[in-house]
Amino acid sequence: MLRSKKMERMPSRTGIVMAAIIAMTGSVSPLQATPLSIHEIQYTDDADGVSPQNGNVVDCLGGIVTHKRSGGRPRLVLQDPNYPDGWGAIQVKGWSSDAFDNVVVGDWVSLTNVMVEDHKGTTFLQYQSDYDSNLTVVDANNPLPRPLVVTIDEIAAPIESPDAWAVPDHGAEKYEAMLIKVIDVSVEDLGYGKAYDNYLLTSNADPNLTCWVSDYMNADKEEGLIYHPYTEVDQHFCSVTGILEQYTGDSEGIYYDYYQLLTRRSDDFIVDQIADLDGDCDVDFVDFGVLAGHWLEAGCGQPDWCGGADLVTDPSQQEVNTLDLLVFTQHWLEGK
Q: Between vectors from CA 330 to CA 328 and to CA 335, what angle results, nearest 5°?
């Protein structure tokens, strides 16, 4: 897999020329000497989360396509696995419906001549002919980055006031466009946000913690419907995975500034965690202890299946054995 890295320093003669340009113009934004990593584009200490490259036309070393949205103004979501803890992903917006026809999830793509724009809170790479943008598929079939498990309070729902729904700070900014996951949550309510397409997820460990989720980019959502079929009030999920997006704007006298977790497909919802034998929505040594406690136990059947340890619920082999251990190992540490 291609690993992005900063290029070497420019030769001193080039540095002298660049210094002269700065002295004359006060800016070098029209020039992009070296391609930038996603991290270099996204990382910011600005309180509002605005990219330091906002408004510049840049070349980007790119990342792995974790999601593709077709039609209209298509989008790609890219993530650089070299930055798993934050500032490692970005959305690319195309301006023609066929812009990304030859790109699939798992491709590592790089881009040239794309304009960085913070639009309604989200940092985009604008891929359009005005800038002579170009995209290269560097390689294909890359494994997707493992979703980063975050706590609900790290992407907390906005606070309501008479004329606003706004987050108190932008601490979640570092997760923008990254694959993240929240665990052991339930749908509390529907109909939030500027487009009323957000729903409220509540932590089952602490009901005071909530975040907003939207299915508008979910490829498995039926066209014309707001929510994925799994999204119903009181529905419990062992985990929900998605990409994080910020939205800021005004609607009907209400100001919005919030983060929403965007699901991509049905697989982003885990209702029951296979091999979770203690009911805490992850698979770890506690669950292994349950399996070991029922090892070689026979006569397993409905409804208990030997405490759930008989994972291969086949009436022809009602025993906890190596077949069940194989299933267990396939799900080891899921939910973590």
A: 85
Angstrom CA distances, 206 to 156, 186, 285, stand at 13, 11, 23
For residue 33, what pLDDT is reported? Answer: 65
Q: Does domain 148-270 have CATH number 1.20.1070?
A: no
**Per-residue CA distances from 20 to 14, 27, 48 (Å):** 10, 10, 32
Q: Phi first, then psi: what are they for 291, rounded to 5°? A: -60, -45
Which residues is 185 bridged to in the sheet? 203, 237
pLDDT value at residue 336: 67
Strand partners, 257: 166, 248
Q: How far apart are CA 102 and CA 70, in angstroms?
A: 11
What is the number of other CB atoms lying within 10 angstroms of the CB of residue 1?
11
Q: What is residue 203's three-state secondary structure?
A: strand
Beta bridge partners of 149: 181
Q: What is the fold of 12-139?
A: OB fold (Dihydrolipoamide Acetyltransferase, E2P) (2.40.50)
Structure token pair of residue 14: 């080039």
Q: What is the mean pLDDT of residues 158-183?
A: 97
Domain ranges for the chain: 12-139, 148-270, 285-330
Q: Is 330 helix (H, G, I), strand (E, B) or coil?
A: helix
- Considering only CA atoms, which of 328, 312, 331, 324 is closest in space to residue 270? 331
Share of the chain above pLDDT 70, in %: 90
The pair of three-digit structure tokens given for residue 60, joined into one six-digit string: 């980007």
How does DSSP classify residue 264?
Answer: -
Q: What is the pTM of this model?
A: 0.82
Distance CA 86, CA 150 (A): 11
Give the model's pLDDT for residue 8. Answer: 32
Nearest residue to 261 via CA among 207, 332, 204, 187: 187
| CA torsion, ordered 90, 96, 102, 106, to nearest 10 deg | 20
pLDDT in tens, 210-255: 999 999 999 999 999 999 999 999 999 999 999 999 999 999 999 9
